[in-house]
Write a structure and sequence with these properties.
Strand content: 25-35%
Distance between the termini: 55 Å
Cofactor: FAD
Keywords: FAD, Flavoprotein, Oxidoreductase
Mean pLDDT: 92
Bound molecules: flavin-adenine dinucleotide
Number of strands: 28
GO molecular function: FAD binding; oxidoreductase activity, acting on paired donors, with incorporation or reduction of molecular oxygen, NAD(P)H as one donor, and incorporation of one atom of oxygen
CATH topology of the largest domain: FAD/NAD(P)-binding domain
Protein name: FAD-binding domain-containing protein
InterPro entries: FAD-bd (IPR002938), FAD/NAD-bd_sf (IPR036188), PHOX_C_sf (IPR038220), RIFMO-like (IPR050641)
Structural class: alpha/beta
Low-confidence stretches: 1-9
Largest sheet: 8 strands, mixed
Oligomer: single chain
CATH superfamily of the largest domain: FAD/NAD(P)-binding domain
CATH class of the largest domain: Alpha Beta
Amino acid sequence: MYASIIDSSTLAPALVVGGGPAGLAAALCLAKNGVPVKIIEKGKTPEVRARGTGLWPRTMEVFANLGVVDPFLRNGLPVNQMRAYASNGYDVLKTWDFYAIDEPTPTSPYARALLNPQDSTEAFLRDALEKYGIHVEFGTEFVDFEQDESGVTVKLLSHSSEPPVSETFRASWLLGSDGGKSAVRKRLGASFLGESENLGPMAIFGDFEMENLDRGFWHVWGNMETSQALILPLSTPPSKRWQIIFMGKNIRASESLMHGDLPVIQDMINRTTGRNDLIITKAYGLTVWSPNIRMVNAFSKDRVFLIGDAAHAHPPTGAQGMNSSVQDAHNLGWKLALVHKKLASESFLSTYNTERLPVIAEMLNLTKEISHMFRKGDADAASEDKSPPKGWTRSNKLNMMGLHCHWSPIVVDERTLFTEGGPVDVYGTAGGILRAGDRAPSAPGLVDIATQDAETTLFGLFGPAHHTALVFSSQDGDVESALLQELDAYNAIAPKDLSPLVLPVLLLPSSFQRHAAKAPAPDSIVRKLVDRDGIARGAYDIQQDDGLWVVIVRPDGVVGGIVRGSEGIKKYFSRIFNTSN
Ligand SMILES: Cc1cc2nc3c(=O)[nH]c(=O)nc-3n(C[C@H](O)[C@H](O)[C@H](O)COP(=O)(O)OP(=O)(O)OC[C@H]3O[C@@H](n4cnc5c(N)ncnc54)[C@H](O)[C@@H]3O)c2cc1C
């Protein structure tokens, strides 16, 4: 079967299997951490398919953290209003908000959800990776692996020539981001428990260019008893791309439809919408979604990790899949980088599992709950009832901004104690004081004491390869200097060629008198900033008379520690680094 055997005995740090959103985000996160990556993709060329189109604010923050948010802001469409039509296809029965619009705020600058086709998301991530000299190796398929104490030996098949060529590749770590049918998961022998039947009717997702519909809305016709069509815009104009979802008992995935025959697709659109003016000019492809809701019981085994759909299958209702996949990658990337550099112990990697498992389990519950609404008829849009159909409204919970890991063994909170065994609302509830394990908010208006003109934001300080330690104090005295020095000292454990592990930042109130500042040492990375508008203090719930607090933000933009001082700092970093300070 194989033309020849190429035996490559190089030990690369990480091999990422699968060039979808999870694999690309993981590779980018590792690259940003200075860890060389090889990323392979079975497909010979990038697939043009909309699939995961909804990008929630938390994912946009992940992209901002990875330095790749700008193309998404340029290309993504912030559309949230839905329109349902009468049976004549043209009369608008009702218009409503599919989800409540959250406008950007100083602490949540990416608060608006965006629509962007998944192929374009993947292209933006690939572009960002190429800046690190990392190119997705298309046409290379993962076949098998063996792992031992020092690495993973992987068998690959290169389809770039005919017949395909077998290769052996050895890496320290293997990341299986090869989607729902993951060969890595199967080879790992990981369980994939859940349910596949009786979860509601099938849906067909299509991706088209189409004329004559207003791109300012999601449009819906029909009901689940017979047929329903949802049409939503993708990307900003001049793009004419739309995603169309056909659902309901009368929907059949005929061979000619799935083959993408334009007249057959056109006929399906005409029948499900009752209109004849929605003209398809190009079809990118159709996919059948069959109910399948599953997840692994562990995201890793020794040197092999599962991320994204390789670890979880879920309904598209709620648009959580790709978002969760990118967030898996972000959670794992910085941890794996620290362990690879021997700055954290291998046992630290178990926190990927501890932090993500409950989140994914809840994601499955939420998306399943929504998919059940379709079965129960709660998504029938074409009723005379003027209220929005329950199945076509989404709670703000799904924007993922409340996701947290309060229970994580590596977060330290000296302000709000975590109650072991107590109820945990994984997707978070609005309100309440900021806690360790929550997403770390941004804040603008941070003015550098040294230069006075350089203004930055907290998001501008955070990054995927370092912790940012925010010392909130009203003065720049000896206690503050000692804490900043203690934080900076962690940088001594990293080899000189690595970027800093900890960025120490003194955040002073606007009342602070500049002349009272102590100048940092000339080569110090310590930043001293005035929180000019008090937005940072507000976002982190720190009042001026609260005394000194240190908030440690992890590389993945999660609050890792909220501590009073030196003891808390030591406690936090003793759970991260394997070298005592
Ligand atoms: C129709 C539809 C609509 C959706 N809508 C949304 C939405 O709005 N929002 C959302 O968040 N999610 C949505 N999702 C889910 C989303 O598409 C997935 O969750 C997402 O693609 C997962 O990313 P991934 O990188 O884990 O896997 P994938 O995107 O599946 O990528 C896996 C990659 O691995 C490659 N691969 C597979 N096997 C091998 C191998 N042996 N060797 C090498 N490479 C291999 C595959 O070719 C593929 O490119 C939708 C899904 C569908 C089908």
